[in-house]
């Protein structure tokens, strides 16, 4: 038979090396008991801190509720005083605007309530106010949480604090 240049690939002399099919474990960085001890210690410290923090939060919330309860009559009186002040200003402005308006052959041109009271909406009350003041009044919320200066107040630039919170920083 003539040689065609084809050669069959055969295993090396002595055969292939043995295949390792036994289960192998990665090298341990920490010993299991050390990891278990550290995990247990972290859990105990974290749980203790969580219980302490919850008690502290409940105390703070209780103080805030007590403070809010004590100040509520004053806050309500100030809000009502401010509301009446705006209503008085609106009444004077509307009297100035409507001074030349009369009647049409004895019939009033505009509907009036006379001596009856009608609770006006925010839009009616703040009609003669600056639009930003109206927006502030409608969107502002009373917050029960801690309202004293925070550590991050120093990190907020003046132009941002003034624009969003009307805070005058020194």
Automatic annotation (TrEMBL):
Record localization: Mitochondrion inner membrane
Principal subcellular localisation of the protein: mitochondrion
Bilayer topology term: Single-pass membrane protein
UniProt source species: Mesorhabditis spiculigera
Name of protein: NADH dehydrogenase [ubiquinone] 1 alpha subcomplex subunit 13
Keywords from the UniProt entry: Electron transport, Membrane, Mitochondrion, Mitochondrion inner membrane, Respiratory chain, Transmembrane, Transmembrane helix, Transport
Family from the record: Belongs to the complex I NDUFA13 subunit family.
UniProt KW Transmembrane keyword: yes
Record note on quaternary structure: Complex I is composed of 45 different subunits. Interacts with CARD15, but not with CARD4. Interacts with STAT3, but not with STAT1, STAT2 and STAT5A. Interacts with OLFM4.
